[in-house]
TrEMBL record:
Catalyzes the methyl esterification of L-isoaspartyl residues in peptides and proteins that result from spontaneous decomposition of normal L-aspartyl and L-asparaginyl residues. It plays a role in the repair and/or degradation of damaged proteins. It catalyses: [protein]-L-isoaspartate + S-adenosyl-L-methionine = [protein]-L-isoaspartate alpha-methyl ester + S-adenosyl-L-homocysteine. PANTHER family: PROTEIN-L-ISOASPARTATE O-METHYLTRANSFERASE (PTHR11579), PROTEIN-L-ISOASPARTATE(D-ASPARTATE) O-METHYLTRANSFERASE (PTHR11579:SF0). This is Protein-L-isoaspartate O-methyltransferase. It is an enzyme of class 2 (transferase). GO terms for molecular function: protein-L-isoaspartate (D-aspartate) O-methyltransferase activity. GO terms for cellular component: cytoplasm. It is found in: Cytoplasm. The active site is at residue 63. The gene is pcm. GO terms for biological process: methylation; protein repair.
Amino acid sequence: MDGNFQKSRREMVKIIREDYGFKDERVLEVLLKVPRHEFVPKKSRNIAHDDTPVDIGYGQTMSQPYTVAEMTNLLIAKSEKLKAERVLEVGTGSGYQAAILSHFFDEVYTVEVIPQLSHLARNNLSRLGYKNVFTKLGSGEWGWKKHAPFDAIIVTAGVDKVPQELFEQLKVRGILVAPVGKGYDKTMTRYTKIKKLRKEEMKKEEFGTFHFVPFVKEKR
């Protein structure tokens, strides 16, 4: 059975490389290593590596493989250090994106607002031996101030705009990647915090349209 999943992962990576023209071999190598099928419900394991999002329950989905690859690439493309850095993920889901990030960053901090998913992700990551990923139950809009500032931040659900608190928890020259915009279609956006004179600013770059479930805030 594991052999079948390995074959499916190889086909998944082939599609990302050839159909999408994706060129970051560092990311593709990690996509081959991380067992995506271990992060989806058992009933969905047969489609875990298909080029589509996967329902993980509670109104949430795991992003399609290409989206995971693209967001990871945008996050690490400008980094020279990587393994010496720490990253914040907003929206843990079932833990797959955090597992990918753990191969590129020394410390991964990830926040999930849905209790059942936070518990699921923590179990998945522990069971599979990801010891440099730290999970927290809470609203991602507030980040994780205790461990800030971060070298990079990734938002894995669609937002109308990026919460200011996240920008404030980003280091100067840090990267923040998020799907931003109104409605179901979001613009993949990369922000770089720069310092001009004594003022901090965010440089903004846009990278096409992607589909995302909406950002879930903590109920008060």
